[in-house]
Structure formats: structure tokens, C-alpha cells
Amino acid sequence: MEAMNQKSLERVVSQRALQMGSSFPCQICVVGFLCGVCLASLFLAALTSFGSFEFNGISFSMGASSSSSPSPWNSSSDAINCKLKLKETERWFNSQRSTMETDNERVSLLHLVWGALLTESVHEEREFLLKFGLNQSSVPNAPHLENCKLSAYINMRLDTRAENESFPPWTNRKGLLDMYPASTAKEQLGSPRHRPISEGVYPPWITGSDEENYPLTRKVQRDIWVHQHPPNCWDPNVRFLVADWERLPGFGIGAQIAGMCGLLAIAINEKRVLVTNYYNRADHDGCKGSSRSSWSCYFLPETSQGCRDRAFELMDNKEALEKGIITTKDNYSSKQIWAGRAPRVWGDPWSYLQPTTEINGTLIAYHRKMDRRWWRAQAVRYLMRFLTEYTCGLLNVARHAAFGKEAAKMVLTGLPREWPNVEVANNSGSDIEDFVWSSHRPWIPRPMLSMHVRMGDKACEMKVVEFEKYMLLADRIRKHFPHLNSIWLSTEMQEVVDKSKLYPHWNFYFTNVTRQVGNMTMAIYEASLGRETSTNYPLVNFLMATDSDFFIGALGSTWCFLIDGMRNTGGKVMSGYLSVNKDRFW
Q1: Is the pLDDT higher at 91 or at 108?
Q2: Disulfide engineering: 272 pairs with which of 267, 381, 516, 569, CB 3.0-4.6 Å?
Q3: Origin, by domain of life (predicted)?
Q4: Half-sphere exposure of 57 (CA within 13 A, CB side)
Q5: How many other C-beta atoms can be found within 10 angstroms of the C-beta atom of residue 138?
């Protein structure tokens, strides 16, 4: 009975070991465990055969009972069985490793294929697919990538006034649904679904309810658009303010945007149409054609092309300048631009902002610059309301570099193991994909926490806080939302990226760009990157932060201040904002 029990125990242990998880470390443990069982078996068998052994001069004997009773360990048969089990385990281990290697190869291949599809060259795309024996129908959709051509088309359509209408085609239908062909007799007989709902229509770039945004956000955004898009730009009553973007040395992107927010306030207060002109950060080879040196390289223009043409025509008219039909930035003082009066057209909605910002454990219910905070949020939201195809492409590249392999693993779980040797049914052309799901945002690992860590020469403007304090705030968020484990890290400092490796329980994502080392000034750092890179990667970080579920930053930084504004006009008021310091003007 004892021998049978021992054999049963051995079988149970071996079977249990073989059934353990398929992860690589677990497989190593399985092999090591079984090898130990085999060695112990052989060792005990040897003891049984020799009956006695000597250790440090002391003799040990197995005793009479050991020699007369049947041994639970049969030396010859158990040694053979152990070798067989070891070989069986090795075969299983090798097959699992081969499967893992095959899976990794498939993930890498799909990641590479999706990356090739990001190229603008159709020829290069075909060449790449042929190289791996693939065709377009065998490539599954990439959930983390956006169709930038389609998005640019939709954005332009929603930013252009429909013929003989007061608004663009802003309806109660989202995305492409308002283009869905009429299918019922009622619709064909003149249903109003294609007509905007006069008072109830709001801009489609605002997400979330009124309670999830700053007060009056949807109404304000609609009114700014109407103000900036008069029906007839050649009407003699239409006046203009034409302004270059700030380009003084030391002015970062955040300061440039903040300055333009001030000029938009002046334009609204004086009933002028704001027209932006030269944007030095778009003066690079990535911005093509007329969008070079223009804000319109990254975001749709602040006004219509007709108004831009009319404004630049008046710039050459001395009489128009003298009569004030057109003004420029030189007509206003720095104080008016940077600390001017926020528009009072909508009353004082900043007086009832929801207190959702926390500094040092306390919610900020009131501060001296609430009107400026509210207005800058509205202005930056309007200026960045729609992305161009170029900016959409930058985000695609960033998401693919950060999340592409995760997306590939996720997609491959739903494909046959024979892929890529079989075609994938993408169901392209189905109505629900074309008209409903097309409006969904690209996939990212959610929930996502965005963290902007500003250090370096920013110490001359605000209290600089070490990375460790940011992470303490991140841990506080995770205590309440335990499923949070992803951080989009935005920083110029290599030191911060290096420190992120000390937190293995978080998944960090960040753009692949050279970062500052030491006390290099921001101006020197940006110059070392070149204009294109030093503009593109911060804007990607900015837009990723506005789309994230949570945000930790420093309100003493203009950049974080503007991110906060975009989030508070993007349906994320109730996500809250943990700041490591306060704005220096509060």
C-alpha cells in the first residue's frame, strides 16, 4: 500500500507540474522541479542498492528492515521512468517555447505591417506587403490607428458653413451618421434630420454634458465659431485683427498659445475677426504647401479662407489701417494681450466653476484668476478644435510606437493560428463600421494617467518638484482606481525617464525623443532637436494628455495650465486634476 501511495504521489506531482502556466519562468520552474524529483529518486535508489554509506568517517546502515522489506523506490524502473518523464517534459517545454517564439514573430510581423501602412507612399506599402507574401485583405484593422484622410474630410466638412445655412452640418447625429442615405419614406419626404436644430445645435468637437465641462462651454464654442465665420467677409462692417504668433527668444509653445488666447479675447471684445499669420514653429519641411509657417499645418484655421484673404488684402490698404478697419498686434500693449479682460459676453461663468483641482490635499474653490483660467480654456479649445491630417498622422505614429505591440497581441487572439497564411475577413463596407464605429476614438490602454513633469530651467518661474512626488500622487489615484496601471509620461528630462524604471508596477509610455541631460536651457534643448521635432513631439504629448483619463501636472507651468483647460472643455472636469504646485499669479 505504501508503494502504491508513493507512486500515486509521484504521478500527481508530475501531472500537476505539467499543467502549470505556460509562461516562460513557470516552464523553467517545472523542468527544475522534475529534475529534482529524478535526482532524488536516483539518489535514494543508490542508497537502497548499497545498503550503507559513510559520511565524514561515520557509517550509516539502512537496517534489517530495509533489506527485508520491499523498497518503495525500485532503482532500475524508477530511473527509466524518470528519464522518460524528463524527456516528455523537455518535449513539452520545447513545443511551448516554439509556440511562444511563433506568437512573438506574429506579433512583430503584424506590428511591422501596420507600421508600413502608416507611410504615405502607396508604392512603399505594396512593396512591403509583397516582401512578406501578404496582401491588403490579410491585414487586420489596427484599433490604435485612425483613418486620417477620413477624419480630415469629416473635420473640414464640420468646419464649413453649409450653403444658405447659419451653421455647418451640426446635427444630433454623430460622425458620418448624418450622411447615411435616407431609408424610410418619412426621411425621403423631407425629414429635418439633415437640418441643424437652430438653438439646440452645438459644435461636435465638444464631448460630454454641460456638467462634465466648464460652464457654458458648448454655447461659448458655438458663439466663437459664429463670430470667427461671418457669412460675408467682404461686408464693410466686418473688421479684423491680424497677428503673428509670438516668436521672442525663450517663448515656448505654451506661451505662444496663451498670447493668442489673449488676442482672441481682444478680437471678441472689439467685435473683430482674429486672423493668425506667421507661425514660426510650423516653418519646417513637414508642413507642406500653404500650411507651411501656418497654424493650419496642425489645426484647422481660426477663420474661413475668405476672411483670411480679405484681411490680408486690407493689410495693404493704408486707409483701412488708419480707420481701424484692421488692426495688428502692434496696436495693443503686452498687458492687454497677456493680462487683458476676459470677454463678458456670457456674463461671469467662471464664478461657478466646480472645484475639482487639488493642491496639497485641498480642493481649490477660488483664486484671483478664475476668469483667465476659464477664458484660456475656451480659447485653446477653439483654436485646437479640429486636427489636420498631418497632426492626426503624428498621433498615429506615436500610438503605434507606444501601444502597437500590445494592440497586435490583442488582435491576434481573435485570428486563426495560421495567420498570416490565411485572409482576414475585415467586413469592410458594412454600414455599422462605416457610419457608426468610424466615429470611435483610436484604442489606447485604459484607464490612462498622463503626467507632465516639468523641471530644468522652469525653476526660475515656479517651484520645481521631484519625480517622486508625482508618483505619490499617482499612487493616490490608483488607490481609488485600482485598475489603473498605465502612465503617459511627458517630460524633457532624461533623469525622469530613468527614474520611471524604479516603478515596475506601472507601465510607462513616452515619445522616443532625445531628452535634456543636466541643466541645459529649454531654448538650447529645442535648438538641438530642430524645429520640426521640437514642435511635433510636445504637441503629441499635449493631445495625449487631453485624451487621458487622469492628469497630474504643475499649474505653475503654462503648458499644464493649457492642458487643464483642454481637459475641462473636453468632458473631463470630473476626472479632477492633481497639481504639485499652484499658478504663480493665484
Answers
A1: 108
A2: 267
A3: Eukaryota
A4: 0
A5: 18
